[in-house]
Design brief:
Blueprint lengths: L1 H18 L1 H6 L2 H10 L6 H9 L3 H13 L11 H16 L12 H9 L4 E5 L8 E7 L9 E8 L6 E3 L21 H11 L1 H8 L15 H17 L3 H9 L5 H4 L5 E9 L5 E9 L5 E3 L2 E14 L4 E13 L1 H7 L4 E8 L3 E11 L4 E11 L7 E2 L3 E3 L1 E4 L11 E2 L2 E4 L5 E3 L3 E9 L9 E9 L2 E9 L8 E7 L6 E11 L2 E13 L8 E4 L8 H14 L2 H14 L4 H13 L4 H11 L7 H13 L3 H14 L4 H13 L3 H14 L4 H12 L6
Parallel strand pairs: 10-25, 18-24
Antiparallel strand pairs: 1-2, 2-3, 3-4, 5-6, 6-10, 7-8, 8-9, 8-11, 11-12, 13-19, 14-19, 15-17, 16-17, 19-22, 20-21, 20-23, 23-24
Helix pairs in contact: 1-4, 1-10, 4-11, 6-7, 8-9, 14-15, 15-16, 16-17, 16-18, 17-18, 18-19, 19-20, 20-21, 21-22
């Protein structure tokens, strides 16, 4: 399977190279050289593909910066030892391996291997044997961390005694390729081996196997493991870096600031849904960055984590977005407690029914690093009588007080659940399964059962059934299972609701049992949510309904919030937007006028919405008054001047309309439709349409 995976990677690399030829030709020379010469052996197909998609030199420079950062063994220092060593190897290859061939040394087989593996532990040269072509043997050891054997040889030989030294393959070349004269059958490995053995026994053994200590199965057939070794060497650079950062750079290069864009860090995440106390769906997510970089001053350690969330529908329309800031500060004792543990942020927010895409960016303001979470979500509506939430698998739970108007992420009933984001548990540990099933009002009378089925490596492991009456806290369900009968392996659990042995609804989740006796558990930072009788909760849902186009429910939610907080200009503006969308302009005046007449300066959008409402309802004098007041309090803009001109024209004030539009063109001359309108109006002999 590994050999097959290597071939797939090489095939993808070749396809990527072929597809990108036309793009490379158009690329400026420095970037073409970087891609085709300097990093050609260490860049992955994904990285190459992303680089070819970049449109500007600025984007390419930032990508190159990110490319080397991902390979820097000491990212917190100024020097990048990997990059320095890579260019040293290229320089060495050009100096020593291109002397006798009409191409640069980095393009030779020896140059390629030297760039990938570095200097060998030992080199032996065989150039004086008349019956054997000039040959070099490079010996390497101590590269187990790269997935290579503890010790192995690589052989290079001058094919037919001319040109560059080629990398020897026991399968593709065989010992007969090393001999200057070999009259027998070219496929007779044994005869060639015996002839080399009489001349140079060391070379004879290597001609059949490159792996030190390996004895050939037969002297008539070279080692297949040697061919596997050669393939593994070629793909080492592709396996040293997780190239997901390249995709994230391409995806977020126009979203995150420049100082963040090259500093993507890996992370793990978990997203689950549940229903809150009043039946409102909640998204819960856990976010764990690969590392938490912090700064310190005197005896304090600190950083600031920022979360930027976006929920969009499947047409990419914005449904909801949020920003949250998490200031973190520790003393030395706290740092000692958490420094070797993962860091998880837990958060939750309400969501309306539908199909959505969730994106959360996590930024570290101190280190300028960012990571991301992306999920597709389906929140069912009322179309099904039964609804089952996803399974939450926890290793521990803690009883907490039910605080008024406060909802914790990953809390069920009065228990806080601690879920491993990587879904890893330990032998003899505890597995807690928590979920909700809604629609069970007459559950007892219908003889419902809950069936738990565990599969171990796709084979059924354990199954048991419980009567629904054993769960008195419905619709919430909590089941504790000892893992003493679960050996280390990959598992899948399926939980189903059954009626008379017929499955009605089910949910499943995967998890692993680790071979380790203990797993480092994270420390948590938990963000809480106000319950849905709180204005903020209702307001969030109202905005989501508004952005999704459900004006009826949007009005219901935001109007209720407005009645509680009439002094909030933001809430008033959004309620006004709903009425304007419904072409119900009358309420807008009473909602927004108090802010126009107040002592404090209203928001720009308050002016605009009130004037727009007057304009659309035909109250042009009032609209003109508000537009002029907005221009006076803020500044003139086409957004205000253009509709002002339309209102003045409706009031038969042709000169006023032309003055407003002329002023608009001074601010933004690129308005061809407005110029046509002005020309048409000037050609009219009457002042009103």
């Amino acid at each position: 399977m590994r050999y097959r995976a290597v071939l797939i990677i090489l095939l993808l690399l070749l396809l990527s190279s072929a597809q990108g030829i036309s793009d490379v030709k158009e690329m400026p020379k420095p970037y073409k050289k970087w891609l085709e010469q300097e990093v050609t052996y260490i860049i992955s197909p994904v990285e190459r593909e992303v680089f070819l998609e970049l449109a500007s030199n600025r984007e390419r420079n930032l990508f190159i910066q990110a490319f080397w950062k991902q390979r820097d063994p000491t990212p917190n220092t100024e020097n990048n030892e990997y990059k320095q060593e890579h260019y040293r190897r290229i320089e060495y290859a050009n100096q020593y391996f291109g002397r006798e061939v009409p191409k640069p040394g980095w393009m030779t087989d020896r140059g390629r291997i030297y760039i990938i593996l570095g200097k060998p532990n030992e080199i032996q040269t065989f150039e004086s044997e008349i019956e054997i072509y000039p040959t070099e043997v490079w010996f390497y050891q101590g590269m187990e961390d790269k997935g290579l054997p503890p010790a192995f040889n690589l052989m290079f030989f001058q094919d037919k005694g001319q040109g560059e030294y080629k990398l020897y393959s026991p399968i593709n070349h065989g010992p007969q390729a090393l001999l200057t004269s070999f009259e027998q059958d070219q496929t007779n490995y044994a005869a060639a081996y015996e002839k080399i053995k009489k001349i140079e026994p060391f070379l004879a053994d290597i001609s059949l196997t490159l792996i030190s200590g390996e004895k050939p199965v037969s002297y008539t057939k070279p080692s297949l493991f040697s061919e596997h070794l050669l393939n593994e060497i070629e793909t080492i650079p592709l396996r040293q870096v997780n190239d997901i950062y390249a995709r994230k750079y391409l995806e977020y290069k126009d979203t995150v600031e420049v100082e963040y864009s090259t500093n993507y860090i890996m992370s793990t995440s978990l997203v689950k849904t549940k229903k809150g106390p009043h039946g409102v769906d909640l998204i819960q997510y856990a976010f764990s960055p690969e590392r938490l970089s912090i700064d310190h001053y005197q005896d304090k350690y600190y950083t600031i984590i920022e979360l930027y969330g976006r929920v969009s529908d499947m047409q990419d329309r914005l449904i909801y977005q949020f920003e949250k800031s998490i200031p973190l500060e520790f003393d030395q004792a706290q740092i000692n407690q958490i420094k070797n543990r993962p860091f998880d942020v837990l958060d939750t927010f309400p969501i309306i029914p539908g199909k959505f895409k969730l994106t959360v960016l996590m930024k570290n303001k101190i280190s300028k690093e960012f990571s991301s979470l992306e999920r597709n979500l389906y929140i069912p509506g009322e179309e099904s009588p039964f609804q089952m939430t996803p399974l939450m698998l926890a290793y521990e739970m803690e009883k907490v007080s039910l605080e008024k108007n406060s909802i914790r992420p990953f809390q069920i009933r009065d228990y806080q659940l601690y879920l491993p984001i990587n879904r890893t548990f330990i032998e003899d540990g505890l597995l807690i399964i928590a979920y909700q099933i809604h629609g069970l009002d007459d559950a007892i009378s219908k003889n419902f059962k809950i069936r738990y089925t565990f599969h171990k490596n796709k084979e059924e492991h354990i199954e048991f059934t419980k009567d629904i009456s054993e769960y008195p806290e419905r619709p919430s369900f909590i089941e504790k299972i000892s893992l003493k009968d679960f050996s280390p392996a990959h598992y899948m659990i399926r939980v189903g609701l059954f009626e008379n042995n017929n499955e009605i609804i089910s949910a499943r989740e995967e998890f692993d049992i680790s071979h380790s006796k203990s797993v480092p558990r994270p420390w948590y930072y938990t963000l809480r949510l106000s319950e849905n009788n709180d204005p903020g909760f209702l307001y969030t849902l109202g905005l989501q309904y508004f952005h999704s186009g459900n004006l009826k429910k949007a009005e219901s939610h935001i109007k209720e919030v407005y009645e509680m907080k009439k002094d909030s200009e933001e809430i008033a503006m959004n309620l006004a937007r709903i009425y304007i969308s419904k072409e119900n302009y009358k309420p807008v005046e009473s909602i927004l006028s108090p802010f126009i007449d107040s002592q404090e300066l209203p928001k720009y959008q308050t002016y605009f919405l009130l004037a727009l409402s007057y304009k659309n309802s035909g109250e042009f004098k009032e609209a003109v008054r508000i537009y002029k007041k907005a221009i006076s309090d803020y500044e003139a803009s086409p957004e205000l001047l253009n509709p002002l001109g339309e209102c003045l024209l409706q009031l038969k004030n042709k000169k006023g309309a032309l003055d407003a539009w002329d002023e608009s063109l001074k601010i933004n001359p690129d308005q061809p439709k407005l110029r046509i309108k002005i020309k048409s109006l000037k050609n009219q002999k009457i002042q009103c349409p």
